[in-house]
Design brief:
By secondary structure, the chain is mainly beta. The protein is built from two helices and 30 strands. The chain folds into two domains: 44 residues; 320 residues, Kelch-type beta propeller (Neuraminidase, 6 Propeller), CATH 2.120.10.
Length: 371
Amino acid sequence: MIPALLQLTSVTKSFGAVRALKGVSSDMLACLCSVLFVGMASSQIVAAELRWEKLAPIPSSLGVAGAFAGVSDGSLLVAGGANFPGKKPWEGGSKVWHDDVFVLEKPDGEWKAAGKLPSPLGYGVALNHARGLVCAGGSGPDRHHTATLILGWSGGRLTTMSLPDLPAPRANHCGALLGERAFLFGGTTAPDSTNALNSLLSLDLTSPRAAWETLDPLPGPGRVFATAAAHAGSFFVFGGAALSRGPDGKPVRGWLRDAYRYTPGQGWKRIADLPRVAVAAPSPAPVIEGRILILGGDDGSQVGTPPADHRGFRRDVLVYDPTTDRWESRDTLPFAHVTTTAVVWRDRIVVPSGEIRPGIRSPEVWTTITR
């Protein structure tokens, strides 16, 4: 209600200013005020009220978490990821990583097999670039990886191009593309890590001789499963989970709400905390009309809940305005997918597959409605 009231106040002030002009007829005045109101309202609606529909599900009956997703030559690619095809984790089941690459060539089409990754892989960073889908780092069945590659789809054929390796293995991190530079942040170096990284890496995708650069570390806790975004010349990091060693030697999560903005040449700046914890929300976060959208995520409120009683992850959208450094909570999502990528494809936001409850995946693919 508050944004609507602010808009109405603004329109009322504009109305008064127009009335003060001489020679303006009542009809013209009404028309001008109508334009002012509709323009302001439509801007608010576009940013606040996304409508969603389903595309064809990926051809995996269980779905996957941690897949790489992005666009090449106008087609949508989803690659790798992991699930529990046998017993569930609380039943002693084992996670299985996949190397399948699927392609969807048009929104009303069906997915088809496109090829294979070099090895089973998931939980890396996926970035949309003009050259194809950039896949950086990730984990496999027994270790984290350093490889960075570009997946391409053209003429019905999948191509793979190598990029420089990361300085060290890294998975469960986040990243975004700022201009022609890829930025990666956080994550862990090994499956059993009990501390999370707070380092920031950057790669110039235009230079054939470029290597990953290590930039200033985040002035805050290292973290896994944070949400990244890029907007207006800056790279953003939101939330995630810190790690520490538990009594049994295994990693324990610390749930985070803090957020940061990195601007090349200026460094890091802490920005307003999120209204709530958000871990593993679809990343990179989409940006609409200058606002960054955190689509759901895990708020940590159900830690320890028996699997059968878990209600699923958050369905609200957190909206951050970098110009005012303020947050709002809006909308209700028809899905609650985490550990997945938010992809911009054909003027849509697409959220493919992902985890819907601990250990449970979904093959559903959701997209914003453009018509």
